[in-house]
Amino acid sequence: MFTYLRRGTRRNTAARLRRLIAALAVVTCGVLGWAGAVPAASASIIPVPADGPYGPAPAPAVPVITAGGMPGWQITLIAVAAALAAAAAAVVLDRARASRRTASVTG
Q: Which of 2, 18, 37, 107 has its CA 20 to 30 A from that of 96?
């Protein structure tokens, strides 16, 4: 009865592959978003009432020293990664320009 609707509706392999890649990209973005939100939710401070069953929080025996800022090794790592990414992009763009120039001269 409905066999005429099924003719010619087969997807080719490239379309299936594109759809699979798009689905994997959506799942990956969702997992990355979840992984970014979980530490932020876990870092919230939950106040404990002083008159509750746990009592007041004891004073720390050792003074806690906190310093703001980012460690030097992280700054160095970010700078090196940015330099490598810029160098890779420059090489890719230069090769693309060179191949286009060569193809237009000989063509």
A: 18
**Token pair listed for 94:** 């230069």
Please state the three-class secondary structure of the chain as a single string: CCHHHCCCCCCCHHHHHHHHHHHHHHHHHHHHHHHHHHHHHHCCCCCCCCCCCCCCCCCCCCCCCCCCCCCHHHHHHHHHHHHHHHHHHHHHHHHHHHHHHHHHHHC
Q: What ranges do the domains of the chain cover? A: 10-44, 71-107
What's the pTM value of the predicted model, to 2 decimals? 0.35
The residue count of the chain comes to 107
